[in-house]
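I hope you will forgive my troubling you with a question about protein structure. I set the record out below, with my sincere thanks for your time.
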Amino acid sequence: MKNRIFILLIIAAVIAGAVVSCQGLMAVADIGAQIAGATGAIDQSTADAISVSARALGSAAEEITPEQEYFIGRAVAANILTNYRIWNGSPALTAYLNRICAAITINSPRPDVYNGYHVAILDSNDINAFATSGGHIFVTRGLINAAKSEDALAGVIAHELAHIQLQHSIKAIRTSRITQALMITGVSAAGAAGMNVSELTDVFKESVSEIVSTLVNNGYSQAQEFEADNTAMSLLASAGYSPSGLVDMLRELSSVQTASSGFGRTHPTPAQRISNAERSVGNYRVTDTRSYRQTRFASTR
């Protein structure tokens, strides 16, 4: 009975951690462990293990700094580049994509990140694109070739920028870190009590690595993809691009992509995304200036 009551107290402390500071959460759990140990509700080794878990939970809930975002993103980029090569066949095309990116970001709510935004072309006929929290955006040659206008290309870049600015990968990592910290409580009392700070840090690093792999291979949730599309249209409108450029790109993807590769493997179907985007695209009143950009776009073909 005592153990059951104490477990309920710990669960309450964890829930309280959602509304108090990291230090507050650790203090609540530490005090609870000390009281329980002193009253004999649990043995001392279990109390020590709970204190270790409390510190892990506190660490998991800490805000990730812009510098950490960058270095996590750089690790993601390195992961991507184990499967793809950077294509340097046209420096002019790479510069063109970066100018589009700059036009969007400078007019966005988050115009800069720790080391800036950078677009690179992947030497692949797959139709795909990736973004990391470090501001790296990778677009395949296959996707570039599928675009029929600058606004369509801008739609792709805006979608990836939206993932960065909405911190989708960072939010997933935060969730994983807290989940992993909670899992430590399942370690035996002696085992958890014997884990030092370095070992706990390694646990979180491994968790982040697994999340990075999952994001690259499996993609974000459908809700996050829809959120990125909606945010992308707002970013496009703010930069003077037509938000319908994203819809144009999605229509093009619906005719060329397969479910087993590229965007098809990691995103909702184009039909689903088009349906979602069309519900919002009418909210933006932007003068259609696409014809002014067509000559510039055609010169990149």
